[in-house]
Amino acid sequence: MTANFEENFTPLRRKKARLRYRVAVIGGGSWATAIVKILSVNLEHIHWWVREDEIVEGINKYGHNPHYLSSTFINPKDVKVSTNLKDIVNKADYVIIVTPSAFLQKTLEPLKKSKLNKKKIITAVKGIIPETMQLITEYLRTEFNVPVSNLAMISGPSHAEEIAQEKFTFLTAASVNQEFAEIVAKMFTNRYVRTSVSKDIMGAEMAVVMKNIYALGAGIYSGLGYGDNFLAAYIANSVKEMKHFVNELYPGERSLDDSVYLGDLLVTAYSRHSRNRMFGNMIGHGLSVRVAQLEMNMVAEGYFACRCIHEMNKKYGSEIPIAETIYGILYEGNNVSSEMKRIAEYYL
Fold it and tell me: Under CATH, which number does the domain 15-199 receive?
């Protein structure tokens, strides 16, 4: 847990040489590109798996990902990029997974369990596996037998677009293994990124899932014409609901005022870079779910998270009216305007 802001952040130190951790990054999107950019400042050995040959060519020939954050320079001398997943994973001791949750199961299919369960795995995925209704760390434990001590997550108020511009950013590395969390923090700390450590990996991971749903709701309200005054009250109530749900599923000592929880929710709900807010805004303006997905050409994790949380909550019966209302709109075709008005009046 991050009890004290000053004490828990890994200090930025001048390094005579880059760290020699052998790291593989899985994923070719905006967040993966931003992570590779961060790591390339600190690490000697970065192996990057992407699905498209065009990205390999773009990095190797021009130093840019042609599909995502195309203005961000990635030095091909610092990063070895390939479409061969098995080869990339074999070359690494640490594997960072940055694939959208909806595609993760298919992405990892070529790998045998023995290829991951001896690695240190860091998840930067902000969602739930739709096929199994599991958090990413739970999925890795059950499907690949990865010990919990070999699992970590990296998260925080962190839009890839701002990292690409080297704007000052705070992240959190969470793991039950304190030593592992501190190694991850070293990997991700550089001139424009500071990284704290936490032991609350399950709570932080669930909060990341929930905040995408609430950000989607903020986008719907914005599309319906609600103003900032109301949105502030909406987000305050979303924080209460998130806190209630996270603490019910994973009891423990935590402060949801920390940046990995509250900060991530705020930036996702308010920022123009937020794909979840963007997706919700389209729904609020009257677009269907299918049309909004086609318009975005990116994955809004909150869409899949709604269904997963709805199904998961059948077991717990927790009172999460905001999340359930958004689920009803997206998956049951409930009227957008009347349902969002109802939930607004619920808190009056």
Answer: 3.40.50.720
